[in-house]
């Protein structure tokens, strides 16, 4: 019996050796059908490989109103001109400066009576809230931190006449603009006649603000399939941003990275207010510090820190 078992084990062992040798030999046999790609081609967005489908691309919504190049140009001139304010000392760009993400770099906005622009502004009337960036505001449906305005034209009109902001009198503003030949020409180009009205001023400002779009960021290229448009650290951050652990995407969803909703997230605010505030877009967010409705956080690290504290409290 022992001889038979020894004989069987010998046969099995021999077969296993033959199988191993056959597999080893097969590994060296070339396969003409195999197609070899340079690994460097993967994820570069090069024309040699079709871009990958990330599932992140979204169509931007329709703009929230009509515009034309002529209206936008009129609005651009008005936006940067302090003639819109009662004392000719504040323009829209004073608080919505291009260098600061069309915000102002201040914890809360500073209105009438101040000097300078951006974070260097001083001496004016402190306002209640941080200045919201105007990037991609043409895709927005609610305006201001409390969502109190429902159109971009209404948003443009409010600070013009607010006594703590630009404090303009609509009739005086029309008279002053009508005395400037350059504006008469611009209104004529935009509207086909020389009539200047407060409503047209608001429409022109809104038309310009609709041109402030950001659709060519590294994220947009990554979403289109250019894998290396984001660094490894940025890709890890994106995965965490989209994860169930953080749920950031619930409020800051592509492509605008906002949801046009009011939310309560419990940001410390003096009286520990539980008020709901507008979810701001994260487009160009690195330019528009400080953050939150009260400008409480000076850096994005601080924002993530307070939100991380909230994540840990979730059941």
Can you count the helices? Answer: 10
- Widest beta sheet: strand line-up: 1-2
Give the full name of the CATH homologous superfamily of the largest domain.
Answer: Cytochrome c-like domain
**SSE topology string:** HHHHHHHHHEEH
Secondary structure: number of strands: 2
Describe the structure in your own words:
With 315 residues, the protein is mostly helical. The protein has 2 domains: 141 residues, Orthogonal Bundle (Cytochrome Bc1 Complex, Chain D, domain 2); 96 residues, Cytochrome Bc1 Complex, Chain D, domain 2, CATH 1.10.760.10. The longest helix has 25 residues. About 8% of the residues have low confidence.
Short description:
The chain has ten helices and two strands. By secondary structure, it is mainly alpha-helical.
Helix and strand topology:
Blueprint: H1 2-26, H2 69-79, H3 92-95, H4 152-161, H5 170-178, H6 181-191, H7 198-209, H8 218-223, H9 232-241, E1 262-263, E2 277-278, H10 300-313
Antiparallel strand pairs: 1-2
Protein traits:
315 residues, mainly alpha, Cytochrome Bc1 Complex, Chain D, domain 2, two-stranded antiparallel sheet, 10 helices, 1% strand
């Amino acid at each position: 019996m022992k001889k038979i078992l020894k004989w069987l084990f010998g046969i099995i062992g021999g077969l296993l050796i033959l199988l191993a040798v056959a597999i080893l030999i097969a590994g060296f046999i070339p396969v003409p059908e195999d197609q070899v790609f340079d690994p460097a081609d993967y994820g570069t967005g090069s024309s040699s490989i079709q871009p990958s489908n990330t599932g992140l691309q979204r169509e931007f919504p329709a703009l929230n109103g009509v515009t034309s190049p002529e209206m936008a140009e009129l609005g651009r001139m008005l936006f940067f001109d302090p003639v819109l304010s009662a004392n000719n000392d504040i323009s829209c760009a004073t608080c919505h400066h291009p260098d600061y993400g069309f915000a102002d770099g201040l914890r809360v906005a500073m209105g009438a009576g101040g000097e300078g622009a951006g974070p260097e502004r001083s001496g004016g009337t402190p306002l209640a809230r941080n200045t919201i960036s105007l990037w991609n505001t043409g895709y927005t449906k609610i305006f201001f931190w409390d969502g109190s305005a429902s159109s971009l034209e209404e948003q443009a009109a409010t600070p013009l006449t607010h006594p703590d902001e630009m404090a303009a009198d609509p009739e005086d503003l029309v008279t002053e603009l009508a005395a400037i030949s350059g504006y008469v020409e611009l209104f004529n180009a935009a509207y086909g006649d020389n009539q200047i009205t407060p409503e047209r001023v608001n429409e022109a400002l809104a038309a310009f603000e609709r041109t402030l779009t950001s659709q060519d960021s590294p994220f947009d290229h990554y979403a289109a399939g250019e894998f290396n448009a984001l660094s490894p650290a940025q890709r890890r951050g994106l995965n965490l941003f989209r994860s169930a652990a953080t749920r950031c995407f619930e409020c800051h969803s592509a492509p605008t990275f906002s949801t046009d909703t009011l939310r309560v997230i419990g940001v410390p605010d003096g009286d520990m207010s539980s008020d709901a505030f507008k979810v701001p877009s994260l487009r160009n967010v690195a330019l528009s510090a400080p953050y939150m409705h009260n400008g409480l956080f000076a850096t994005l690290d601080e924002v993530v820190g307070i939100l991380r504290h909230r994540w840990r409290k979730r059941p």
